[in-house]
Amino acid sequence: MNLTAVAERTAPRSLSLVPRPDQPERWLAHHEPVSFDEAASAVLDAHRADGERSDVPVVDLRSWAFGSSDGESMELLRVPFPGRDPGRPLALRELAFSQLCGRLGAPAGYVRDLPSKLQMACLNWGLAQHRSPALLRLSGGEVRALLSDRYAAVDDEALLEMVSDCLDRSGFRDDVVVRATSVGPHTLMRITIPSEGTAVKVGDVIEHGIDIGNSELGLRSGQVTPVTYRLVCTNGMRAWRSESALRLRHIGDPARLHDQLRDAIPVAFAEARGQLELWRRSVEVLIDNALEEVESLRGLGFSKGEVAAVGQHLLPAESSAVSIEEALAGRRVAAFDVANTITASARERSSVAARLLGEEVGHRYLSRRVA
Fold it and tell me: Is the dihedral of CA 78, 80, 86, 91 positive or negative?
């Protein structure tokens, strides 16, 4: 059977077919903290707004074709074998298209720019050679992810129910609030304990807590990560490389995952509480040359542009210097200030993943400088 012919139910134009957008990524900083239940409801509301969730098991990828019914959108279509209802085409989202290309060994960026008929020819040839099962995760009839049939997703609703139960059992439920929530291809909830906040300076309170993270789309495991959160500027800092930061593989065993969470959550809270001492000590650690200190961040993985962004945040308000270098050279600063400018600059990054990476660099810097 000619799969390209099947895909061309209505002949598309020669322009490239394009994927549909993924669920919008949003970071919500709750300046007035919300309860865990309120934050969980907001996450699930965002899912419902994105479209009804469902899964389609695929027995053999060779029974599907890549094409378009409108001449514009990338779609997966069932090959109409005798006696098989092809149903309606399923539009591919950005992530699902990339995952399909990865499964077939095709470079997604290259395929994206090809004319539509060449896109179909390349991907349908790959599908015809790929004898394997798969799992399509849908939202509103669009494919949001294409995963292995062995992938046992822990969806946000189930994970948040487990976290809620673990907070109850560990005695934290009445003490915690949610300071930030992220929705989109990744979900994150930043939970802190206001009653245990510490003033590292007069009027400058830092709370400790945990990040609960998850992805339903095969992008990363679930996570429980110790964090600190500065109230003055809503800067967060994550101890991502900590031994207590738990990665929860999607293994399809809810009982085991529940047990892991029950152990990990109190341990992560305890470790985050210990990080407050780093902040207290950082106020007393003075650095003689702010410019050299900022430039040393390249050794922690920051790019030239990211180093410049940190330097910009570190500039004194009254500075009349013609350049960042001139303003920072020989200037004395506290490690506390440098760490905060790192996490402040992280807030300006283009994606949630990049923001969290910047926060993790802030923790590595503080640990190196103060511990």
Answer: positive
In the three-class reduction of DSSP (H, G, I as helix; E, B as strand; rest coil), residue 334 is classed as strand
Instruction: Provide CB contacts within 8 A for 232, sequence distance 6+.
Output: 203, 204, 205
* C-alpha torsion sign, points 23, 27, 33, 35: positive
Tell me, rounded to whole angstroms, the distance of Cα 102 from its chain centroid: 20
pLDDT at 365 over 80: yes
Q: Token pair 């909830």 is at which residue?
A: 189
Determine which helix (DSSP H) or strand (DSSP E) holds 218, and give its type and residue range: none
Average pLDDT for residues 128-139, to the nearest whole number?
93
- pLDDT category, 64, cuts 50, 70, 90? very high
In this structure, is the dihedral angle defined by the CA atoms of residues 60, 62, 67 and 69, taken in order, positive or negative?
negative
Q: Where are the alpha helices (DSSP H) in the chain?
A: 3-7, 36-50, 94-104, 108-112, 116-129, 156-170, 254-282, 290-295, 304-314, 324-328, 335-346, 352-370
For the chain, what are the domain ranges?
A: 3-32+45-147, 156-275, 286-370
H helix count then E strand count, the chain = 12, 16
Average pLDDT of the residues in 72-95: 92
CA-CA distance, 297 to 152, in Å (whole number)? 39
